[in-house]
Amino acid sequence: MNPTELLDSSIESDEDKIRKSYDHEDLKTFLAKSTIKDYFQRALQISDCYQLLSYLQATLSRYVWADFDLEEKLDLYILAIMMMTYEQDNFIVINKRFTLLDTVSNLVYILYPDQIEFIANGLYKNFVQGVGAKRLENFLNMQAAFPRLMLSSGSGSDVALALLLTILSRYTKVPARLQMTGNARNAFEMAKLVSWQQLANSDQYHDMFINSLD
Question: How far apart are CA 138 and CA 187, in angstroms?
Fold first, then answer.
C-alpha cells in the first residue's frame, strides 16, 4: 500500500469516529469564553440553524468594522467558520452560511499584515493545533469554510492565505513571509519544502492531510 492509500484509509477510519459538525452546545461553549458574547446574547436561546444564522446576520448588519477590536474580529471569524458546519446536513441554509462568512470578511476588511497574521495564528490555534481525533475534527470543520474564505471579498482571502502560510511554516520550519502582495506565490514555494515522505514514514497521516490544504 502506497502513502496515498495509507493516508486515505487512515482518514476514512478516523472520520468514522469523529463528529464533523458543530452543534448548539459547541456554540454556547465558544461564545461563553469569547470576546463577542455580549453581541450575541440571544444566540444562547436559538438552536435552530436557520433562525440562528438569520439572527447572527441581522445582528452583524448593525455594526461597522470600526466597532470591533482585533480579538473580536478573530472571534467573529471563528464564529463564521463554526457556522459553516453547524448542523452540516442542513443544506437549505448553505447560502446563509456563505453570507455570514462574507459579512464577517467585509466587516474586517481593513487589516494590516500584522493584524492578518494575528487572526491567522488564532485560527491555527483553534482549528489546526492539537492532538488526536479532536484535532482532525476541528480541522475538517475549518476546511469546509476554507474555499469560501478564499473566494470572499474583504479580508477573507488574505486571512485564508495567511492561515495556509502558517500551516506550512509549522511543518517546514521556515518563517511565514506575510506581505501586502505575493502571498499565494509564497505559499506555493513553501509547499515545495514539505517533506511528504518524512510525514508518511513517521505515520503522521493526519499531518499529511492537513498539509494538503490548498
Answer: 22
pLDDT digits (tens, 9 = 90+) for 154-208: 889 889 988 888 887 777 666 666 655 555 566 555 655 555 555 544 444 444 4
Long-range contacts of 91-96 (CB under 8 A, 24+ apart): 92/50, 93/49, 93/50, 93/53, 96/50, 96/53, 96/54, 96/57
pLDDT, tens only, 86-112: 998 888 999 999 999 999 999 888 888
Question: Hey, is 161 helix, strand or coil?
Answer: helix
Q: pTM value?
A: 0.79
Place of cell 455594526: 63
C-alpha distance from residue 65 to each of 36, 58, 85, 131, 204 (Å): 14, 15, 25, 34, 40
Determine contact, residues 65/108, Cβ cutoff 8 Å: yes
Q: Is-contact 10 205, C-beta < 8 A?
A: yes
Alpha carbons 56 and 96: distance in angstroms, whole number: 10
